[in-house]
Amino acid sequence: MQETGNGVETRPVVSIISAVLNEGDNIRPLCQEIAAVLGQLPPAEVIFVNDGSTDATVTELEAVRHDGILPGLRILSHNTACGKSAGLRTGVEAARGEWVILLDGDGQDDPADFISMLELCRATIGERAPLVVGVRTKRQDTLSRRLASRFANRLRSRLLNDGCPDTGASLKAFRRTDFLGLPQFEGLHRFLPSLMGQRGVPLVCVPVHHRNRLHGSSKYTNLNRAIVGIRDILGVMWLNNRARIPKRVTER
User: Fold this and answer.
1) Cβ contacts of residue 105 below 8 Å, gap of 6+?
2) Whole-Å CA distances, 51 to 84, 141, 146, 223
3) What local confidence, expressed as pLDDT, does residue 2 receive?
4) Range of the domain at 133
5) What was the pLDDT predicted at 203?
6) Domain at 179, CATH number
7) Which residues of the chain have pLDDT under 70?
């Protein structure tokens, strides 16, 4: 909750969620950037889900809250590492806002992009609020990672026909209830355009900033991403093929 000038707490409109694993060195600078844009958003809450970190991640999160950088910061923790999608699911289930913004905890995403993405998300298309996906037009990654990502995106786009050039980008905004209606599995966050699209959620892709990781290294290797990614694509193809979802439900 956010407190107004007269001491009355207001329910958050948007929930900003990040699932983190061993990102202790990146927590404070990222939270400072998030705090800097909160005044330009509707009432918001910030949720960090600690996915079984073994470094100082939780200590840093508590310090950020104690020092007043994000005094209302919510810190949720898994007792063991369950994966990024599980962490995001934990955060979205606990969220109190109608709208959700996801970002990574490594500092590569720019919180300044929250503002335009949320505006697009709340501008409904027809009767539905869209899924807004940030597309990294100028990626600050190694050449091998960029090539691997390009191959994965092209393969996924060809097989799933989801209309999204960069589903691996972590910055996404959507209506909370649209996410909670999806089946849960590790890797889910990379297939939101396809899975939400099957359920009638429009897709909006918008260019976003992408920066070098502040500290530490990625938790995934190119080979790991490729093997798991192909398996997940086949799984999502099966889910989409077997889904029978009505466009409209009426009651008399």
Assistant:
1) 18, 19, 20, 23, 26, 27, 30, 48
2) 7, 24, 26, 22
3) 55
4) 14-140+166-214
5) 95
6) 3.90.550.10
7) 1-9, 138-153, 156-157, 216-228
